[in-house]
Amino acid sequence: MSNEILMEIKSVDRTYVDANNHTVDALKDINLSIRRGEFLSIIGPSGCGKTTLLRLLAGLDVPESGVITLEGEEIKGPHPDRGYVFQQGSLFPWLTVEKNIATGLKARGVYKKHKNEIAQYINMIGLDGFEEVFPHQISGGMAQRVAIARSLINHPVALLLDEPMGALDAFTRADLQDKILELWKKNETTMILVTHDVEEALYLSDRVVIMSPRPGKISEIINISLPRPRQKNSQDFMVMRSSILEKLHLASTIPQVEYNI
Ligand SMILES: Nc1ncnc2c1ncn2[C@@H]1O[C@H](COP(=O)(O)OP(=O)(O)OP(=O)(O)O)[C@@H](O)[C@H]1O
């Protein structure tokens, strides 16, 4: 990972007005520098603004005040240079695996020129032989791989992952975590992952950002220096996991928050 700053979030606020006409401070004075090529996870209790922050990075929403830049340019809207993967259900059900991945290229207007790359990305996500299959015929983990390939084929500088493993069973989740690590290394894409899972954040990340709610703020940024491949049952890993859990509980003002550990 380089020390070059890819994205910069400066003094960002985002408020919403809820159904009862109350103002919700979803994000308050967020400052964060994201380095090119790093794996960054954002973790925190429900409602602390994780998705709001990811949507701002994607350009799907704009800050109330403050600024977010990518390579020094202000982010003003969505762009294929920032891929976005949702928790589930983001594939077009009427298109095959191959055609779903092709929509990434079509969105960029480069389908004809780059369609021969689709096979390479299908191979990269380990789905050779599934080209002509429809989303309802594959597992949730396979569908998430397709959603990731659809973004990666556009060579994004950053991939924004909003709990992509949240709806998967434990075995499939662990499998997809390893695939995401492999894709990260191969493509050198900056990864920004929102997760509720402490173990997942610790297994994958160079840095873990802990957020706290009401207002949504960054309460701590932790550097993870454990060597890779990380062993989830090693002493060092478990000590670090307990430490992050403790910080999360301190960051949370909501009683009875549940985490996957
Ligand atoms: N469109 C909206 N209108 C009103 N309030 C909103 C809207 N979107 C988000 N909020 C509120 O802003 C706060 C932050 O929401 P956000 O979804 O970013 O949190 P989160 O940390 O991603 O939560 P979760 O982990 O449950 O997905 C919450 O209090 C939420 O209710």
From TrEMBL:
<dbReference type="InterPro" id="IPR050166">
    <property type="entry name" value="ABC_transporter_ATP-bind"/>
</dbReference>
<keyword id="KW-0547">Nucleotide-binding</keyword>
<protein>
    <submittedName>
        <fullName>NitT/TauT family transport system ATP-binding protein/sulfonate transport system ATP-binding protein</fullName>
    </submittedName>
</protein>
<dbReference type="InterPro" id="IPR003439">
    <property type="entry name" value="ABC_transporter-like_ATP-bd"/>
</dbReference>
<dbReference type="InterPro" id="IPR027417">
    <property type="entry name" value="P-loop_NTPase"/>
</dbReference>
<dbReference type="Pfam" id="PF00005">
    <property type="entry name" value="ABC_tran"/>
</dbReference>
<keyword id="KW-0067">ATP-binding</keyword>
<dbReference type="InterPro" id="IPR017871">
    <property type="entry name" value="ABC_transporter-like_CS"/>
</dbReference>
<dbReference type="InterPro" id="IPR003593">
    <property type="entry name" value="AAA+_ATPase"/>
</dbReference>
<dbReference type="GO" id="GO:0016887">
    <property type="term" value="F:ATP hydrolysis activity"/>
</dbReference>
<dbReference type="GO" id="GO:0005524">
    <property type="term" value="F:ATP binding"/>
</dbReference>
<feature type="domain" description="ABC transporter">
    <location>
        <begin position="9"/>
        <end position="238"/>
    </location>
</feature>
<keyword id="KW-0813">Transport</keyword>
